[in-house]
Amino acid sequence: MKGNLHMLSAVDAAAAIRAGHLSSEALVQACLDQIAATDEAIKAWAFLDPELALVQAREMDRIRKAGHATGALHGVPVGLKDIIDTRFMPTQRGTPIFAGRKPDADATIVNRLREAGAVIMGKTKTTELAFVHGTDTTNPHDASRTPGGSSSGSAAAVAAHHVPLAIGTQTNGSVIRPASFCGIYGFKPTRGVIARTGVLQTSVSLDQVGCFGRTLNDVALLADVIGSFDPRDPASFARPRPAMLAGAGAAVPVEPDIAWFDLSFNDRLDDDARAGLEAVMDTLGARVERFPTASKLDNLIAVQATIHEYEFCQHLAATIEAHWDQLSETLQPVITRGRRISKDQYEDALAVKASADAFFTRHFNDFDAILAPAATGEAPAFGTATGDPVFCTIWTLAGLPSVTLPLLVGENDLPVGVQLIGAVEKDDRLMRTANWMQTTLAAEA
Questions:
Q1: Which of 186, 181, 119, 110 is nearest to 403 (CA)?
Q2: pTM for this one?
């Protein structure tokens, strides 16, 4: 194969490598060339060793030529958010506190990637401790804008065609929001589908792993590969996972029923994003049912913040105590606020979270998906902040599978995503609905 190999989707690249039409070495070299040409401005990578990437690629080519089994991502390069442990690469968590840190073992998801034949390309930049203080990564569409966070480098690397796939995490809006800002697909499966062992824990109740790609099939394939049970993760469940790639390629048996909630914070939407979402709903017509604002849903924003900030301070207490002066002035006030949350307040918030989980279980008896904004609009200006995550908060709190589709363009010709949310452990149905929606909208364009 010739041409712009770095532009290939993961599904197409894996198929070409398995068929012997493309070598992993050629694909990885093309991606490395793209990184060399563009990353000085984008700054997506926290660690990149080109020779180490090529060594992995050559080994994948040797395995295929020897006639051994090949995996679902055989020879395909993948970027990892720099809070995911890797034995042979540093994991520095977006802070000088952990500069040069080398873990003793790979995270569970890294083991899954290696089993599938993926090439671990390197570590993508994250905000400080995967929380509020931004990194220096810029948006590939406009260097004066943020790529979002906290999975900043993962989203930017995929959007800039550095890698076809990257992995991030979401505790509030850290996969869906940057995917929206960068004009790519972001997918956060049901909480518990992907084991978090070996990933920096900032909130045991809320942390979830997600996927970035440039097609719906790509993020579905990546989620299938890295999904697994791990008894060391309290959220991980020991039963079969939904077949997400199969769902993304399936036809809907009947046209889906989709809900839209008129939440009080919808006034944070930019005018162009609101107009785009209204146009989407107009096109889908009777398939979308609108629900008026519900205070119980609005209140979940504060519930998520209580759980997130309390657990962050608990999980990272030793780091906070030992390295206070090395924490940013952005993060320090959040920690101070989190330390004031009482155990009773925290436990009350967990109880409300449980009731929200039950509410959505009932809701999805009647609906295939919820339609929502992925972000407030186009990516905001580059700086220490990474954009408002409010349109992801409720669904993350409830552990619902969520996907953002790069369907809209804002007034400055920058991407704006449209989010779909599905029922717990019905990720395959969400993928099917997402495929139906983007196909329907394209047919009407």
A1: 186
A2: 0.98
